[in-house]
Amino acid sequence: AIQGMRIVIDTNVIASAIFFGGRPRELLEQQLQHRFDAFISREILEEYQDTIEYLCARYPSHPISVPLTQIAAACSMIEPITHVHVCRDPDDDKFINCAIDSRSLYIVSGDKDLLVLEQFENIEIITAAEFCKRFL
User: Fold this and answer.
1) Among 16, 38, 42, 45, which one has the highest count of C-beta atoms within 10 angstroms of its own C-beta?
2) How would you class 41 by CB atoms within 10 Å of its CB: exposed for 0-12, middle for 13-18, buried for 19 or more?
3) Which residues pair with 77 in a beta bridge?
């Protein structure tokens, strides 16, 4: 296990894990077993929810592998006090804020707007595939 490892997981990784599988699913399964600490804010949870509802409507025949309530229960909720503006897509700043205030080392994302940053202060932004390769 990678005890004490703190991460923030981007919405697209959660959505991929639930609907499509692959590396994001692997990551999610490890998270549900509390192999590391995943942090969310209320804003992030709302985005998870909106995206999952949208995908459910779009792929009605696609079963959800893990309900959001279970994912949320396996996360630690924080209320960020930091408000940076560093992403070219301002919607992505909430992941940086959450990572800073939870003292996370990684943001796991499939979003080019975040991945292009590569690093912010001491937070590394990496794909689910890269995270799995390194740690799982």
Assistant:
1) 38
2) buried
3) 40
Distances (CA, A) of 59 to 34, 55, 63: 29, 6, 9
What span, in angstroms and rounded, lies between the C-alpha atoms of 106 and 120? 10
Note the pLDDT tens digit of each residue in 5-55.
999 999 999 999 999 899 999 999 999 999 999 999 999 999 999 999 999
* 48 Cβ neighbours under 8 A, 6+ residues apart: 11, 14, 15, 40, 68, 71, 72
Give the helix/strand (H/E) hosting 104.
Answer: none
pTM for the full predicted model: 0.95
Q: CA-CA distance, 12 to 17, in Å (whole number)?
A: 8
Q: Which two tokens stand for residue 51?
A: 């995206």
